[in-house]
Amino acid sequence: MKDPKSTSFFHCGYDDLQSRLACINPHDYDKTRNFLDGAVTWLSPFITHGIINTRDVANAVLSRHAKPKCEKLLFELAWREYFHRIWQNNRDAIFSDLKNPSVSTRMQLPSSLLNCQTGINVIDESLQQLQQIGSMHNHARMWVASICCNMGNTHWLPAAKWMHYHLLDGDLASNTLSWQWIAGTFSNKRYFANQDNINKFSKSSQHGTFLDVPYEAFENWQIPGVLAETDSPDLQQTLPFEALKNIEPISESVALRSVWHLQKEWQPTATHQWIFVDTEQQAQWPMSYKRWSFIKHWASFIPGVRFVKGTSQELAKKLGAADVLRQEYTGCNHWSPQTEERQWLYPDPPKPYNSFSKFWKQVKNDD
Ligand SMILES: Cc1cc2nc3c(=O)[nH]c(=O)nc-3n(C[C@H](O)[C@H](O)[C@H](O)COP(=O)(O)OP(=O)(O)OC[C@H]3O[C@@H](n4cnc5c(N)ncnc54)[C@H](O)[C@@H]3O)c2cc1C
To answer: Angle at the Cα of 117 (from 48 to 235), degrees rounded to 5?
Structure first.
């Protein structure tokens, strides 16, 4: 297997993806998931962009391993589904403090995070990997989010936009709600980690950093010098796609995709295959050049596909007479009526569930 910390790991082909699914070892995953060098799958960019889905991952492990052995991986896949159900039920409210008001108020990020110079080696290396490759281990994300919001007093929203921009798997539900969970606006308490915790899960032994303190120190925390200076990240984006306004209205069938739905074998008989780039949404949640390269690489497997950009109003005008095929996705519900449900691992979650543990308790016995 190629190194998951390289661009080529993500710019692979469908055969490589199948091999990776076949290699997942749920036992090793269970034992090592929280360690930076643990046996995690690194599949999230493919899941986020709808190249494979959570059900594909679950089926791949359940076809080779007994269900109890797969429980930890199924549990983590359920987190993704839970976040997407929360988004589906709350719509744009997830982009504001969802349960509790934020105690962190700065609207810029610590410059040392943006420059990968916090002085904590593991954090700085993870930040470089984020900016160069677009990937970051879950535990590193938790540490970075905690440093940013809970130790640096930054509100989670600008920080979530920054991370979403760089991540290949940047996902409006998982990213936003994870940041809110760490910042205590979507959880009952804020998440803190000290240097001992970082050393344990990164197998390192650094000391003398601003986090080399006991947990009690977080009760009367003052922003440390290294996090004092702030800046706004540069989140430039180019969208070199055909503008909808230059395209003639369509009257045939159109398989209308978003960048969140790049599965190659979907509605292959439609006359037109479009990936619509919603310029208003992109302006709110921009994506890096490497993220767009990833999207274009995977879109190239869809025969006859065409990227078009514009607003949802322009889209409605161009497709007014067309037979539009579209899979449900919360971020695209304002585009056109959906014609099919997306594939969930847990298709009928019982309601209400106002915590992940309640959600998991109810869905874990589904097949
Ligand atoms: C601050 C922060 C921001 C995050 N932003 C994103 C994001 O933009 N997109 C995203 O997909 N995940 C996000 N996560 C969740 C998690 O970090 C990633 O899903 C995970 O690191 C992806 O790596 P993997 O594919 O190797 O995961 P694995 O551990 O191999 O898990 C398999 C799959 O299960 C799902 N999954 C695993 N853990 C989680 C989790 N905690 N929450 C939701 N789904 C999970 C993912 O789809 C993942 O691909 C974020 C977490 C934090 C703390």
So the answer is: 45
Domain architecture of the chain: domains with CATH: 7-93 (1.25.40.80), 109-231 (1.10.579.10), 242-332 (no CATH)
Token duo for residue 14: 């469908």
Closest ligand 1 atom, CA of 145?
Answer: 1
The per-residue pLDDT for range 351-361, each reduced to its tens digit, is: 778 899 999 99
Ligand 1 center–CA 138 separation, angstroms:
6
- Whose alpha carbon is nearest atom 23 of ligand 1? 42
Hey, what amino acid is at 329? Y
Q: How confident is the model at residue 348 (pLDDT cuts 50, 70, 90)?
A: confident
Residue 367 has a pLDDT of 58
**Which residues surround ligand 1 with Cβ inside 6 Å?**
33, 40-44, 47-48, 76-77, 79-80, 83, 138, 141-142, 145, 163-164, 167, 169-171, 174-175, 178-179, 182
How much distance in Å is there from the Cα of 135 to the middle of ligand 1? 10
CA 326 to each of CA 262, 276, 286, 341: distance values in angstroms, whole numbers, following the listed order: 12, 11, 23, 9
User: Hey, what are 238's tokens?
Assistant: 């180019």
Distance 308 CA to ligand 1 centre (A): 29
Report, as an integer, the average pLDDT of 194-204: 98
Task: Please give the span between the terminal C-alpha atoms of the chain, in angstroms, as a whole number.
Answer: 30
What separation in Å is there between the alpha carbon of 64 and the centre of ligand 1? Answer: 23
